[in-house]
Specification:
heterodimer, A: 238 residues, alpha+beta, Immunoglobulin-like, 6-stranded mixed β-sheet, 3-stranded antiparallel β-sheet, B: 166 residues, 2 domains, 4-stranded antiparallel β-sheet, elongated
Chain lengths: 238, 166
Amino acid sequence: MTKSEEDEEPDVISAHKEAETAIIFASGVEPSVLAGKKASAYIHFANKGSSNFIITSIDGSFRYPQDFSYVIQNFTVISPNKMIDAGYEGSFQYEFQPGELSGGRSFGLVINVNYKDTEENLYRDAVFNQTVQVIEDEEGLDTETFFMYLMLLGMSGLILLGVFHNVSGKSRRGKKRNTPSANATTLNKVQLETGTTNGPVDYNWIPEETLKAINKGTPSPRRSPKKRANKQRSSETE
Amino acid sequence: DDEKAKIILVKRILNDIITERNDLAIEYNLYNIGDGVATDVELADSSFHESDFELISGMTSVKWSRINAGSNVTHAVVVQPLRAGDFNFTSAVVQYVSEKGVDVTFGYSNEIGEQEILSLKEYNRLHASHMMEWGLFALWCMPSIDVPLLLYYLSKRKYSKKVKKN
């Protein structure tokens, strides 16, 4: 292979003049390409000639808009391997998914149909070759933002809890501080904690059988056996 | 100018999972991307043979008298696969008259290719609601939840009796 041939190699393969291709997208004639979302292209291949063609593969790629020979992203190649007889037409569906970070920029979108005739001559037809604007995918909740909001929610909850705790704690402390002083000034008497010795004890919550048992004088298991023995003896003497 | 119709036929499976003895919806989209009206349009799909599929609704052969330039038509068929295993979904065929006084044009749709048809057993294993399993799970969970609940309830009843009286 000579050098000139090598240089020309991408241009050597061209479309057959008796094969016509056309394309539309799921979004219409103009492709609406969303970053990170699948886009569908429908390709029409009409064999107007007298020889059969075999569609070997369809490939798509994003090119640098200023230099279409510079490939930025290659899309999945499909290989229909479908024979389109002379005079027949064929439709193909080509799905591609632009990278998630490609939004908000324009790219050269190239979709090639590669086919051969029965004599193994290769042809390539660039069925789409235009600069398209890739739209950023605004809709939908991706995991990153979801967890960001979740964290913000948790943090605000924590802050709220902290504030609430602080405020309620202060007010309770304030009450405690206020009541004894008020008593001291009005009644001139310092309150002393006397336990339950001279205050009314609330027995309401204790069930009847337990109260009965207390009144009977059943020794609590906490008492030492020695004491229990003493009590028994004293009751015997009575 | 020659105003010729040009029809793209796209065949698509609407189901995410294809299962034996369950409905499988196929959609056909015909786009007339040409400049002229397509007349005597006939769509036929012979890939659902009686030995493999049962036709539930729709027709595998349809006719439209005309499809205007720039418009599209959708047709759907519902079938039920009779057997599990891989199945090669091949092209549907469309024929139409692209302009007056011209022979009929034949066109193939895209090929969906080989798709797996899941057996019912496999489908149930993967996607059923598993009511039986969850029921048993709940049953096994009951002792560890109900026994403490019962203890709590008994003690609560015992101690709240007095308060009610007052």
